[in-house]
Design a protein that fits this description.
about 500 residues, alpha/beta, Aldehyde Dehydrogenase, Chain A, domain 1, Aldehyde Dehydrogenase, Chain A, domain 2, 16 helices, 22 strands, globular
Length: about 500
């Protein structure tokens, strides 16, 4: 931790105010292309964390009673402000996270889509009514907010994933405490400022920063009712277990190992272009990155063309025009990726394209690793078993589609998968037989739009309801069932009914 460098400090957002932390523990936010220290982020103290939750708890008393139309109008204004500030948000994101400017705009835009969805909350938070279920008796449901909810977000999508969480939580009438990644919280803070400008009342959205201590406080705090998490499997498992043991709802989207099956009848040019974008975009730092390609039959002959296409991708700082692959987020990430590449060679995979130590003019200190391709990969190898979270593609050969499906279904993760084919029969059989929550057919990264819910499965997810879409309305609301009877003014109850039935 660096506590002396004179650089800007990231603030906390508590009760509608940007607050300078009183902590003694700080972390530098570093531009991954240059190692320039952009700002310092505080690790919030227990008092600051408690103040954020207390503010949210107090704000809930009035926010939960705010008319649903008034809530929706805030998000209509918020989406407008995000659009107006798109370039600024993308520039902040690229500086602290490293991804290219076009990809940073895409990061913001996919979050914006959820904000737009939140503005339609009047159509989403509807109950049900059954009229006259017994004589003069009606039953109906209310979908009411839970209270204070919390979100813990990762470094790789510092705009999109916070926007997956707090807009839907707030739109449904909850208040929120957000802990963004301590590696790149600046764009998240700018989004929080814009939310205040859009009319989110003081205390309805609070932001705290920190590491494991703050995560644990979120899991333990008795006034927090639900926790949403996106990040690694190790941390997500810890969050889910600790939060649920404390009686909270929890949804945890975690690690992945995403596969694509390439059938020999697929459109070669379109397929290869899609593979490159999905494997190497964002320097592979996506939970939905395509990290394993299974070539079926004659498609195995496409490897030389895939390698040649990959060589045309430009590695450079994310802010530079024409960049395809920016730096990875940190020196530690670079070391881990490089180590796994070395391990892949040691374990017998063929390093068909080595992206280590690329020469990037003007950015000698950047955390760069270029697109890397392994062939002759088998499932017992470390590069297959571990989520590399870098621009590394593993290629496996299979004789048939059935063999390829068996390989995917044997992997414990279930975030996303895809098939490339021109055969409707193959596509249909794939979508039926594959045991993965999100399926793409000629779509390499099948993240659904917010009308639907993110639906990763198996070891990639804990909790039965996903973020955004219809499922998250269920996650952030409690169903209350009301059974009512109104008697006519002249009606008298002449008998006592001691049975359980309604008459």
């Amino acid at each position: 931790m660096n506590t002396t460098t004179q650089v800007p400090t990231v603030k906390l957002l508590i009760d509608g105010k940007l607050v300078e932390s009183k902590t003694s523990q700080w972390r530098d936010i570093v531009n991954p292309a240059t190692q320039e220290v952009l700002a310092r982020v505080p690790f919030a103290t227990p008092d600051e964390m408690n103040a954020a939750v207390a503010s949210a708890k107090e704000a809930f008393k009035t926010w939960r009673k705010t008319p649903i139309g008034a809530r929706a109008r805030i998000f209509l204004k918020y989406q407008q402000l995000i659009r107006e500030n798109m370039q600024e948000l993308a520039a902040i994101l690229t500086a602290e996270q490293g991804k290219t400017l076009p990809d940073a705009e895409g990061d913001v835009f996919r979050g914006l889509e959820v904000v737009e969805h939140a503005s339609a909350i009047g159509n989403l938070q509807l109950g049900e009514l059954a009229n006259n279920v017994a004589n003069g008796v009606d039953t109906y449901t209310l979908n009411q907010p839970l209270g204070v909810c919390a979100g813990i977000t990762p470094f790789n999508f510092p705009a999109m994933i916070p926007l997956w969480m707090f807009p839907m939580a707030i739109a449904t009438g909850n208040t929120f405490v957000l802990k963004p990644s301590e590696q790149d919280p600046m764009v998240t803070m700018r989004l929080a400022e814009l939310a205040m400008e859009a009319g989110v009342p003081a205390g309805v959205l609070n932001v705290v920063h920190g590491g494991a201590d703050v995560v644990n406080m979120i899991c333990d705090h008795p006034d927090i009712k639900a926790v949403s998490f996106v990040g690694s499997t190790k941390v997500g498992t810890h969050v889910y277990n600790r939060a649920t043991q404390n009686g909270k709802r929890a949804q945890c989207m975690m690690g992945a190992k995403n596969h694509a099956i390439i059938m020999p009848d697929a459109n070669k040019e379109q397929t290869l272009n899609n593979l490159l974008g999905a494997a190497f975009g964002a320097a592979g730092q996506r939970c939905m990155a395509l990290s394993v390609v299974i070539l079926v039959g004659e498609a195995q002959k496409w490897v030389p063309e895939l390698i040649e296409k990959t060589k045309t991708l430009k590695v450079n700082a994310g802010a530079e025009a024409g960049t395809d692959v920016g730096p990875v987020v940190s020196c530690a990430a670079l070391d881990r990726i490089s180590s796994l590449i070395a391990t892949g060679e040691q374990e017998g995979a063929t390093l068909a394209l080595d992206g280590r130590n690329p020469q990037v003019a003007g950015y000698a200190n950047g955390n760069f690793v270029g697109p890397t391709i392994f062939t002759n990969v088998s499932p017992e190898m470390s590069i297959y078993r571990e989520e590399i979270f870098g621009p590394v593609l593993c290629i496996i050969n299979a004789a048939t589609m059935d063999e390829a499906i068996d390989i995917i279904n044997a992997n414990p993760n279930g975030n996303g998968t895809a098939i490339f084919t021109r055969s409707g029969a193959s596509a249909r059989r794939f979508q039926e037989d594959i045991d993965v929550g999100q399926v793409g057919i000629n779509v390499p990264i099948p993240v659904p739009v917010p009308l639907f819910s993110f639906s990763g499965s198996r070891a990639s997810k804990l909790g039965d309801l996903g973020p955004y879409g219809k499922q998250v309305v269920q996650f952030y609301t409690q169903t209350k069932t009301v059974t009512q009877r109104w008697f006519d003014e002249d009606e008298t109850g002449s008998t006592v009914n001691t049975t359980i039935t309604l008459k």
